[in-house]
Amino acid sequence: MKTYVMTPTYNEKENISLLIKKILELKIKNLHTVVVDDNSPDGTWKIVEDISKKNRNVHLLLRKKDKGRGSAGRDGFIYCLKNNADIIVEMDADLSHDPKYIPSMVKELKNADLILGSRRVKGSREIGRGFFRRFVTWGANLYITLMLGIKVKDCNSGFRCFKREVLEGIKAEKLESKGPAIVQEVLFKAHLKGFRIKEIPITFINRTKGKSKLGLKQLTVGYFIVLKLKMQHLIGEL
Ligand SMILES: Nc1nc2c(ncn2[C@@H]2O[C@H](COP(=O)(O)OP(=O)(O)OP(=O)(O)O)[C@@H](O)[C@H]2O)c(=O)[nH]1
Ligand SMILES: [Mg+2]
C-alpha cells in the first residue's frame, strides 16, 4: 500500500518545513509527500527541494507557468496517481490541518471511500478563527449543501483522504476549477459517482504564519462555480 500526502503551496516558507517534518514522523509505511508549489516568490520550493535531496520520500512538483489552488490540486492528484499511490491525502500547508489526523483518516477508509477532516461534526473544534471568517464558512456551507444536495457538514474542508478509485472515478485530470472551488468540484463529483463520504472530527487551527490566499474575488468565483456545477448536473453534463 502506497500513501501520498499532497499539499499545494504558495508562499508558505514559514510553515512548510514543520509540516513536512510532522508528516515524516507519522508511522505509516511507504508514505510519500509531494508539495505542489507555484514558483513561490518567498522560496518555499527551494526549501522543499533541499529537503527532497536528503529524503527520497519527499517530492517537489514545481509549476512555473500555471498558478492557482485548483490547478495545483489537479496536478498534484495526477502526480500521485502516476506514482502509483493507493491512498491520497490532500491538505493545506499553513498548519491549519494537523498531520496527526492522517493515520485515523487512513484507517477510516475501511468504512468509506473519501474521508473528510471536518470542522463541523461532533468533536470538531476551530481555534483562532474570528466571527466573520466563521460566518463566511457557515454561509458557504449552507449555499453548497442547498445547491448541490451533498449530505456533508463541512463542504469546504481541504483536508481529505481518498482511495485511488475516487480520483480515477471522477477523472481528476479533467478537473476544471482554477481556484479553491476545486474542493467543492471534487466533493460533488465524488457524491454523484456514489462514492461513500465520511467526516471525522478535527481541531482546525487558524494559520498563525504567512498570509491567507483566500480573497473576496476567489470567494465570489467559488459561488459561481457551485452554480455552474449545479447547471452542468441539471443538463446532464455531470
Ligand atoms: N500551488 C498553489 N497553492 C496555493 C495557491 N493558493 C493557495 N495555495 C495553498 O492552498 C492552501 C490553502 O490556502 P489558504 O491561503 O490557507 O486558504 P484558506 O485556508 O482558505 O485561507 P486561510 O484560512 O486564511 O488560511 C495553502 O497551503 C496555500 O499555500 C496557489 O495559487 N497555488
Ligand atoms: Mg488556510
Report the average pLDDT across residues: 96
Number of discrete helical segments: 8
Question: What is the H-and-E element order?
Answer: EHEHEHEHEEHEHHEEH
* Low confidence ranges: none
CATH class: Alpha Beta
CATH topology: Spore Coat Polysaccharide Biosynthesis Protein SpsA, Chain A
Domain unit count: 1
CA-based shape: globular
Model description:
The chain is α/β, with parallel strands linked by helices and 238 residues long. It has one domain (3-234): Spore Coat Polysaccharide Biosynthesis Protein SpsA, Chain A. Helix content is 39%, strand content 18%. The protein has 8 helices and 9 strands. The chain has helices at residues 16-24, 44-54, 69-82, 102-107, 131-148, 164-169, 182-192, 216-234, and strands at 3-9, 31-37, 58-62, 87-90, 114-118, 125-127, 160-163, 197-201, 203-205. Helix 5 runs parallel beside helix 8. The protein binds guanosine-5'-triphosphate (GTP) and magnesium ion. Magnesium ion (MG) binds next to loops.
